[in-house]
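User: Last request for today: this protein with zinc ion, please.
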Amino acid sequence: MCAKGVFLLSTCERCKKELFRYSACNYCGRKICDSCIKSSQRVAKVKKIVICKDCWSNMKKRKQYKNKASIVDVTSAA
Ligand SMILES: [Zn+2]
Ligand SMILES: [Zn+2]
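Assistant: Here's the final one, the structure of the complex with zinc ion:
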């Protein structure tokens, strides 16, 4: 089975689990489910930064997360 190139809004791009609501990782831009989120923080009234478990293991990205800087500009749907 090859799902490569197939865009499914309702599937987590990290663990392939079905999604009812998703967050987008601000460091790789993937749409991920709640269990793939390592951490999230609110940086402004309407802005939230999300980092997935993969990006968390990347020291560079983790540092940027701690500095409240996002790499990928994504819009999360609730
Ligand atoms: Zn997931
Ligand atoms: Zn990520």
